[in-house]
Design brief:
Length: 107
């Protein structure tokens, strides 16, 4: 098992979180990207996670089919976890509205 050292906002000085966020937000249909984390697991192996809000009716699969290769090609990060939430979905990420990122069922 490899140890993980999370470094808020960056990892090993290589990951530019602002550039990653801007690139993902530029994908057609994406409203915003937040709760972004990048970790170095071991030398040369970085992992990435984020929450991504998309416009209602946008296919999460279509957005992911652009986001995952973008992460590898532009930033060299091959292990990504991206949680896609559609605006006004039954499960809504309230952080998408500017607050603390908390998920809850809409009733």
């Amino acid at each position: 098992m490899w140890p993980i050292w999370p470094v808020p906002g960056c990892s090993s000085g290589k990951a530019d979180v602002a550039a990653i966020t801007a690139a993902l937000t530029a994908i057609d249909g994406v409203v915003n990207v937040h709760d972004v984390h990048v970790w170095t697991v071991t030398s040369g192996y970085e992992v990435f996670s984020c929450h991504m809000l998309v416009h209602k009716g946008v296919s999460p699969s279509q957005v992911l089919s652009q986001a995952v290769p973008l992460m590898e090609q532009q930033f060299g990060i091959r292990h990504t976890t991206i949680q896609v939430v559609e605006e006004d979905a039954d499960v809504s990420c309230w952080g998408c509205r500017g607050g603390v990122c908390t998920f809850s069922a809409v009733q």
